[in-house]
Each structure stands twice: as structure tokens, then as C-alpha cells.
Specification:
Number of helices: 8
Largest sheet: 9 strands, mixed
Distance between the termini: 24 Å
Structural class: alpha+beta
CATH architecture of the largest domain: 3-Layer(aba) Sandwich
Strand content: 25-35%
Helix content: 25-40%
Length: 293
């Protein structure tokens, strides 16, 4: 990717390398810890070690692109884009708290969007933390549209089963049915993500006697799920041993699913916002987005 100089801040955005891991990890932790503590919310990057793990994973994984913002040869911000699907997912995006108010976040976002426009992707999405008003304003000015308020739920998953549904680990043989289901619900597939989750051992499917009716790539911030009905999705959630990281992202307009979670002991720990540019279809079924979309 060619270097992109953003003015008037004299910031250069370039593609990240493994040598940027420590700088990016520090910035991601410091940025998320700073704003969460200021607003008295849980920290989305709970420790420097977790931040380092996420950054290293993204930098070494095929299908992700990392960007860093440099000023005077010092890394002052970073962003990642998941390019495994037709829809690109941006995140996380972070700016060194010591370099705020200098247009660095905008420079990173503009570079990411320019890259995806060059790739001619039909859409770009992200999940914004609701209490971070400045990021909401930035994304809106860049063209993102609010599509769904999300409630982040955390707690012990209720160990329940739904009559007529069975849940099991997903296999490669499930890919075609799951991909078709995702297309039917969202208008696009996320096959590559599901393949990666199957390889990692985190993916599950729910099925009725007539076949697969939903899947989850995992349970928590980094994973998504789609299902034909809320009951199918609840069957998946009932099989989860835990919700990783901050929790699961539940579309707040899905009153039935949100109410089910609250009635079974889950609690709302944060509000987030799904935002999009380009292709977007109103979902035609039940779903849980990941922290990207």
C-alpha cells in the first residue's frame, strides 16, 4: 500500500508490519482503557497482554490488513480491517491518548476507506461504542449510517435446550448450508470466517430434523451468529460455556431475544452501534453481530 500523507497533521498512514506489534498493542490498550475509565465502563481491551495478543493475531493472519499512523517516524495510531468477506469490517481503531485532537483517527479511517474503495467492495461496516460520541461523529461525517443499536450482554450462559433442536460442533460439511443461510438473512456470506472458526474449534451449528437452521462462529465479541428464528439462536446460546471478553452483541430492536437474555440473568454492560457504508439489507432472521459487523 502506498504511503498516504494526511494534512494538516503531517501524519503518514502506511501498512502495518510485525515490527509495529508492540507500539500498536500499547496504543490499543491505552486508548481503550483511557476512554472507558473516563466514562466508568468496562475496558474492551482488558489488559496490555490481551491487546498484544489481538494485534499479533491480526498482523499474522491472512485476510486482515493493519494500518498505522506515523508522525515524525513515531506510531501514534492504528487500525485493522477484516477483508475475509465481501463486506469489509473495520476495527479496532485507536489513537494514542497523547496525540488526540490531531486528526489521526480521521487519517486512519480515510486510508482504510480509500483502500476498500480501491478493492471495490460492496460495503464497509463497523461497530461503534455508544458512549464514544466523538467516534460516532467522525464515522457519520465519513458517510457511515446507523443501522442497529446493540446491547452488550454478559453473564453466565443459561444451560438450556430447545425442543426439536440439536447443537453440535460445525464441520466443513456444514459450510454450504450455513453460507446459504447467511446470504438469505444478510444478503452476503461470511464463509471464510466460518471456515476459520471451524478450524479453531469454536463454531457450532443448530439443526432441526430437516437440517441446519443456524450457526455461531463462537460466543463473544469476536464472533457472529445467524439463525432462522430466535429459538434457533437461543438453542445456540444455551450451548455456550461462557461469553468471551465483554460479552455478546444483541440487536436491541430484537425485543424478544433481548428480553430472554435479561430474564435469564444476563446484564447489559454497554451499548454499541452498528454502522455501515454501502450494501446493507435489513436482516431477514435472527443474528448476533461480531465487534466488526
Amino acid at each position: 500500500m502506498p504511503l498516504i500523507t494526511q494534512t494538516p497533521t503531517d501524519v503518514v498512514v502506511r501498512e502495518a508490519t510485525l515490527e509495529d506489534r508492540d507500539s500498536c498493542a500499547r496504543i490499543f490498550y491505552d486508548a481503550f482503557e483511557s476512554i472507558a475509565t473516563r466514562h466508568n465502563f468496562p475496558v474492551e481491551v482488558p489488559s496490555p497482554e490481551f491487546g498484544s495478543f489481538v494485534v499479533a493475531d491480526r498482523l499474522s493472519s491472512d485476510g486482515f490488513i493493519g494500518l498505522v499512523a506515523e508522525r515524525e517516524h513515531e506510531v501514534v495510531g492504528g487500525a485493522f480491517v477484516d477483508e475475509r468477506a465481501a463486506i469489509a469490517g473495520i476495527g479496532p481503531v485507536a489513537v494514542d491518548p497523547a496525540a488526540m485532537d490531531d486528526g489521526i483517527g480521521r487519517a486512519l479511517m480515510q486510508a482504510a476507506l480509500e483502500r476498500e474503495r480501491a478493492r471495490r467492495v460492496p460495503g464497509v461496516r463497523l461497530v461503534q461504542t455508544a458512549y464514544h460520541y466523538r467516534s460516532l461523529a467522525l464515522y457519520a461525517k465519513l458517510g457511515f449510517v446507523v443501522r442497529e443499536p446493540l446491547s452488550v450482554l454478559q453473564g453466565s450462559p443459561p444451560a438450556i435446550s430447545i425442543p426439536g433442536r440439536g447443537v453440535r460442533p460445525a464441520t466443513e460439511a456444514d459450510l454450504a448450508r450455513c453460507s446459504a443461510l447467511c446470504v438469505r438473512i444478510h444478503g452476503h456470506d461470511r464463509t471464510r470466517e466460518l471456515q476459520d472458526a471451524i478450524a479453531a474449534g469454536t463454531a457450532r451449528v443448530v439443526e432441526r430434523p430437516d437440517g441446519v437452521c443456524g450457526y455461531a462462529t463462537g460466543f463473544g465479541y469476536a464472533w457472529h451468529a445467524v439463525a432462522e428464528t430466535n429459538e434457533d439462536l437461543i438453542a445456540l446460546l444455551g450451548s455456550a460455556g461462557e461469553f468471551i471478553a465483554l460479552g455478546i452483541l444483541v440487536p436491541s430492536r430484537n425485543a424478544e431475544l433481548l428480553r430472554w437474555g435479561l430474564e435469564h440473568g444476563l446484564r447489559i454492560v454497554q451499548q454499541s452501534t452498528l454502522m455501515t457504508i454501502g450494501l446493507y439489507n435489513e436482516p431477514a432472521g435472527a443474528y448476533l453481530p461480531s465487534i466488526l459487523f
